[in-house]
Prior knowledge:
One of its GO terms (cellular component) is cytosol. By secondary structure, the protein is α/β, with parallel strands linked by helices.
Amino acid sequence: MKHLLTIAGSDCxxxxxxxxxxxxxxxxxxxxxxxxxxxxAQNTLGVDAVVEIDKAMVKAQIDAIFKxxxxxxxxxxxxxxxxxxxxxxxxxxEWKPPVIVIDPVMVSKSGHHLLQPEAKNALIKNxxxxxxxxxxxxxxxxxxxxxxxxxxxxxxxxxxxIYRLGPKSVLVKGGHLSGDAVDVFxxxxxxxxxxxxxxxxxxxxxxxxxLSSAIASYLASEEDIIxxxxxxxxxxxxxxxxxxxxxxxxxxxHHFHPFVSIQDKNSKA
Length: 269
Ligand SMILES: Nc1ncnc2c1ncn2[C@@H]1O[C@H](COP(=O)(O)OP(=O)(O)OP(=O)(O)O)[C@@H](O)[C@H]1O
Ligand SMILES: Cc1ncc(CO)c(N)n1
């Protein structure tokens, strides 16, 4: 069992953020821990309110964990503002976890800002260079590079250009295009495309959080990064396929234990 830490925002409705991350860690057989950067009041319809946590409290949470417990991998999600970004960066540089997955969360599916627009440069300058892998979706890659991305070829160019900003590797996620769900990975040498059939289901709240947490989980024990991403994509695909009809809007994914078959889960849902 590996020890996984998520540094992210809380989603009280349980579909995204810290809650999705902890569910993913557990489903994949790991011990999950959390550092909360912001509390959001949100549900399947959208985000109603956000309160950011003071950077001193973010530091205190990180220190409390690292001075006591071994951390095998960290996933960073919603970071809200540049003070929190600077704190997370200096804390992770101090404690040096072996794996850092950065999910550069910017805007919720419903269109609410989860990163203050003026914090974009702090994210690029501070957090991207310490990432083992950074996992932008297409709108996030567009903001980072300040240009439109509408094709898989453009995703490939984006992965290469984001790599130049300092992370060890980049996964540009294709959930926002149409056709098969194709993600593009670049490790500084080779482009690898990971494709899965697009599942025509509406309950996809938390896909990005789930994928990055699953990547962190697999990277904690798997050295082959492409294998880790492939397994994580397989996990998120199954979790979308089992998405739950909870709430009045875009429902959450279902985090199943890998030893329980999807059919069993569907019959229980
Ligand atoms: N309908 C779908 N069917 C299959 N795979 C999907 C679908 N939608 C997204 N994915 C996959 O889910 C993963 C997350 O990608 P996505 O682009 O949705 O992330 P995201 O936009 O960051 O998520 P979020 O909206 O939760 O922030 C990727 O591997 C993507 O290919
Ligand atoms: C707290 C939180 N993190 C990430 C997302 C993903 O968009 C969300 N909706 N809420």
